[in-house]
Amino acid sequence: MVYEERNAWAGLIVSPIALVVYVVLVLQQAGGGPLTAVDWFPLMLWTIVGGIVATIVISVVWGILAGMKDPDGAGRSDIRDRDIGRMGGRVEQAFVVIAGLGVIALCAVGADVFWIANTMYLGFAVSALVGGVARVIAYRRGLV
């Protein structure tokens, strides 16, 4: 497994966990009350930072283990990796654009900032998940 594929898998492991943790924390803080009353920003910030740190840690540890098994091939990449990365980026970008359109629509109707921020957060999360899945599928089945 090449470096970029390991990174895609690390993101696929961490992203859904971070999203679930965020949703659970928001619902706990709401305590049955309105979600718009939740102090969501620190929760969102820390789950994003925690997700990034966890992804990096998993990638580094996995890379070290792969380097111990195959020292010459652990960090190697080629044109296929670049092409898969570009394709994954295009897939991710499409979902970020969809989230951005949702945010614009929410702003147009005067929605609470809670819904606007969480729509964008969900868009980023879905973007990361779908992009990671697209990359992993491309590594396993090839680019069409």
What is the 3D form? flat
How many helical elements? 4
Q: In total, how many beta strands?
A: 0
What is the string of SSEs from the N terminus onward? HHHH
Oligomer: single chain
Residues in helices, as a percent range:
over 70%
Mean of residue pLDDT values: 92
| SSE class | mainly alpha
The first-to-last residue Cα distance is 20 Å
Rounded to an integer in angstroms, the radius of gyration calculated over CA atoms is 18 Å
**Which blocks of ≥5 consecutive residues have pLDDT under 50?**
none
DSSP strand content: under 5%
Biggest beta sheet summary: none
Topology at a glance:
Blueprint: H1 3-30, H2 40-69, H3 79-108, H4 113-141
Helix pairs in contact: 1-2, 1-4, 3-4
In short:
By secondary structure, the chain is mainly alpha-helical. It is 81% helix and 0% strand.
Write structural notes for this entry:
With 144 residues, the chain is an all-alpha fold. The chain has helices at residues 3-30, 40-69, 79-108, 113-141. It starts with a helix and ends with a helix.
